[in-house]
Design a protein that fits this description.
It is a single chain. The protein is α+β, with helices and mostly antiparallel strands. The chain folds into 2 domains: about 5-40, no CATH class; about 45-180, Nucleoside Triphosphate Pyrophosphohydrolase (Alpha-Beta Complex), CATH 3.90.79. The protein has helices at about 85-100, 155-160, 165-180; strands spanning about 5-15, 20-30, 35-40, 45-55, 55-65, 70-75, 75-80, 100, 105-110, 125-135, 145-150. The strands form 2 sheets. Strands 4, 5, 6, 7, 8, 9, 10 and 11 form an 8-stranded mixed β-sheet that branches. The protein has a 3-stranded antiparallel β-sheet with strand order 1-2-3, with no helix packed on it. Strand 5 and strand 6 form a beta hairpin. The relative contact order is 0.19.
Length: about 180
């Protein structure tokens, strides 16, 4: 038996928020012909950035996350704005806004689906090199960010201690590690 896509029967927007919509969807199983309901979260694509300085420090951000009610150590990232056509431009913008740093070079590392069971978007991961400080942070009203510079040789120990536990950040760091091995 080969797997097939499910037939789209109906979708209804339940609520719209600033950065996502909750959708109730009905799909038909190609195997059982059963109609089943699902809830989806529609949101724009995201970017995250593994940013390195010339002296091999990784630029991280620490911020409070309401879902876990804890501080989180992460790589910079965020939503691709509706007017942005190029995810690389969004990555450069997020890096500048969240850290005050700008990169000489930005290279795409890959794309991942954050949670394909319920999210409809993708997360584009970039490597930013030659990063240098160009100004102050430009935080959104809902952000309180601390910039953390960490020597890259200390990164694995920080991950092993669980100080970085955001799944998309860990996946982005793995994309960077895999690109280094090529």
């Amino acid at each position: 038996m080969s797997l097939r896509d499910w037939e789209h029967l109906h979708e209804e927007s339940l609520c719209r928020y600033k950065v996502f919509d909750v959708v109730k969807a009905r799909r038909r199983s190609p195997r059982t012909q059963t109609d089943i309901g699902f809830f989806l979260i529609r949101t724009p694509d995201w970017v995250n950035v593994v940013a390195l300085t010339d002296d091999q420090q990784i630029i991280l951000v620490r911020q409070y996350r309401h879902g876990t009610e804890q501080m989180s150590l992460e790589i910079p990232g965020g939503l691709i704005d509706p007017h942005e056509q190029d995810p690389a431009a969004a990555a450069a913008r997020e890096l500048r806004e969240e850290t005050g740093y700008q990169a000489r070079h930005i290279k795409k590392l890959g794309v991942m689906t954050p949670n394909p069971a319920i999210f409809t978007n993708r997360c584009h991961t970039y490597l930013a090199t030659g990063c240098h400080r160009v100004g102050d942070l430009q935080q959104d009203l809902g952000e309180d960010i601390e910039v953390v510079l960490l020597p890259t040789e200390q990164l694995d120990a920080v991950v092993r201690r669980g100080e970085i536990d955001h799944a998309l950040v860990l996946a982005g760091l793995q994309m960077w590690r895999a690109a280094q091995a090529e």
